[in-house]
Structure formats: C-alpha cells, structure tokens
C-alpha cells in the first residue's frame, strides 16, 4: 500500500520477503493480515504456514475482498472489515490470541490506478476516495458541507500542507459560487492555482489529496485502535509488523512501539515497580536499492517490527 504515484506501475507488494520472514515465526500458529490488498503478503504467509496454521485477513475494499475469495485454502479466512475492528472480528471467529499481526498501511496500487475510485489527481474522476465504497462520506461530500476552518484543519494536519488555509478558502469560495468541487481534476486545478511553489518532482495537489484520503477513511484513528488492540490479541512472543508510507503513520507506529518497550513508572505511585514491558522493539527496515529501482512506490516505505513480551 502506497502513496500517490508519478506514473502507473503494475502492483508489486512492498517488502514482501522481509515482512513475511519477520512475521511468521511459528508456522502452525494463527496470523492476521490486516490489509489484504491484492494478497501479496497473504499468499506468501500461507506458503510458509504449516497445515495446522491459519491466516485471517481483513480489508475494507469490496474489490480486495472479492480477490481474497478466490483463494481456495481451508487455512484462510477473509473479513470485509477494517483492522480497527480487530478485537470484535477475532472474537466473532472464536480466536482469542494470534501469533502475528501484519499491517500494510495506506492506499493500494490498484486503488490509485483505478480512475473510478477518485484517489489520484492523475485521472479526472468523481472525488470519492473511500476505501470501502459501500459506506461513509466521499471526499466530494466532505468538501460540499464542511466549513473553511474544518477543511483547512484536515489539509494542514493530515497533509502537512502549509497552504492549507488558502486552499480551504478557495474550495469554499468556489462552492459559494455554485460550483462545489466534485471531481479530482477540479480539485487538482484549484490547488495548483493556490500553491505556486512545491518541492521538485511533487505535484502541488499531493498533500491535499493525501489529507482528504486519510480523513475520509479515518486512517490514523483506525491505526491507533489497531495498535492498542494488538496488545490484547498478540500471544507472548507474537510479532507485530507494520509497513508505513508517510511520516504521519510511521510516527504513530514508532511512538507506540517506543512507549510499550520502555519501563514507565506510575507517577501516582512513585515507589511502585514500573509497568511491565509489553513489547520489544526488534527492527526498522527500509527497502533496498534494487526494490526501489524495480518499484518506485517502495521508496518511502518503512517497516517496524516488535515482539509481544510475556507481560499480561
């Protein structure tokens, strides 16, 4: 799962070998792929599992779920759900603990490259951006109802866009004139008129599109929920493997692992023993030069690996 492309490339799973090797340490165990996508990681996990092993996959995208249902393997289960629903979904399946959880964050290549999904400014299409097309508000719907301050806040916080307020002002002014932004091409053109300078090689609309996608899909809140739930569902010595594609995601993952890997005394009881560590940080991995050359979308990926301790 990746960021906005500069061209159209065939879908390639990022950090495939590294992620699966870090994740699967007990081939007879139960594993969760929180983002099936097009199944690159899932199929590689199944190839490493023993006959008694099990893989439970999640995806919000109906097209990804349809692809997953093509897998004919009794060890495999697909759930049309967000990884934010990790605990209740596993409980429904009668699964209390798992030996590993993989999260490959962001938007997938097929989602970006399908103009009808409205994720990319490279194609003119309805401004949808929903990962789950069966529910929720579209990006166009948000821009049609939200006030200038709310739009600016989303663009600034989720896109780290310094021109967030002028962009929001232009969106609201266009709407007031009777022509609300409803298509990707309209939004990209509006942002290009407002943002006159940008980093070399980056489209002026990149940060705005990222921000709207994250907001529409509640991506960062879903990530925080899944990480918190991971502490309850990971068995001792189970692995947490998270692949991020931009700094907002990676910062959340890095901070979470660091906080759960340190002794933290209770300030309300300064003489009590510190809280037991619940995770052990293992690795931070970046794609090698060969992978980036073969798949430019891998260039921003960061994989973090942690292991659940014996602490309850």
Describe this structure in words.
The chain contains 13 helices and seven strands. With 312 residues, the chain is of the alpha/beta class. It folds into two domains: 184 residues, Rossmann fold, CATH 3.40.50.150; 101 residues, Putative methyltransferase TM0872, insert domain (DNA polymerase, domain 1, Orthogonal Bundle). It has a seven-stranded mixed beta sheet with strand order 3-2-1-4-5-7-6, with helices on both faces. Helix 2 links the parallel strand 1 and strand 2. It is globular and about 60 Å long.
Q: Key terms for this structure?
A:
312 residues; alpha/beta; Rossmann fold; DNA polymerase, domain 1; 2 domains
Helix vs. strand class: alpha/beta
Q: How many strands appear in the DSSP assignment?
A: 7
Count of all domains: 2
Order of helices and strands: HEHEHEHEHHHHHHHEHEHE
In CATH, the homologous superfamily of the largest domain goes by the name Vaccinia Virus protein VP39
Strand order of the main beta sheet, please?
3-2-1-4-5-7-6
- Separation of termini? 32 Å
Q: What is the level-2 CATH architecture name of the largest domain?
A: 3-Layer(aba) Sandwich
Overall pLDDT score: 92
């Amino acid at each position: 799962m990746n960021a906005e492309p500069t061209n159209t490339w065939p879908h390639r799973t990022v950090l495939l070998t590294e992620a699966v090797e870090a994740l699967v340490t007990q081939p007879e165990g139960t594993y969760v792929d929180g983002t099936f996508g097009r199944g690159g990681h899932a199929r590689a996990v199944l190839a490493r599992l023993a006959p008694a092993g099990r893989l439970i996959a999640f995806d919000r995208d109906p097209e990804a779920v349809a692809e997953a249902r093509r897998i004919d393997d009794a060890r495999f289960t697909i759930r049309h759900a967000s990884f934010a629903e990790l605990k209740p979904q596993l409980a429904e399946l009668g699964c209390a603990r798992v030996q590993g959880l993989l999260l490959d964050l962001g938007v997938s290549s097929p989602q970006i490259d399908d103009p009808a999904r409205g994720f990319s400014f490279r194609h003119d299409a309805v401004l949808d951006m929903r990962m789950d097309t069966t529910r929720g508000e579209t990006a166009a719907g948000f821009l049609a109802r939200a006030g200038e301050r709310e739009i600016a806040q989303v663009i600034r916080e989720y896109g780290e866009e310094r021109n967030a307020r002028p962009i929001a002002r232009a969106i609201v002014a266009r709407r007031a004139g009777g022509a609300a932004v409803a298509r990707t091409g309209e939004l990209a053109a509006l942002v290009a008129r407002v943002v006159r300078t940008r980093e070399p090689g980056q489209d002026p609309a990149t940060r705005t599109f990222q921000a709207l996608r994250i907001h529409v899909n509640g991506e960062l809140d879903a990530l925080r929920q899944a990480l918190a739930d991971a502490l309850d569902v990971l068995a001792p010595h189970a692995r947490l493997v998270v692949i991020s594609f931009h700094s907002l995601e990676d910062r959340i993952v890095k901070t979470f692992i660091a906080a759960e890997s340190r002794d933290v005394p209770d300030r309300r009881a300064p003489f009590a023993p510190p809280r037991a560590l619940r995770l052990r940080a293992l690795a931070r991995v970046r794609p090698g030069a060969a992978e980036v050359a073969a798949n430019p979308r891998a260039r921003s990926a960061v994989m973090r690996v942690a292991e659940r301790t014996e602490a309850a």
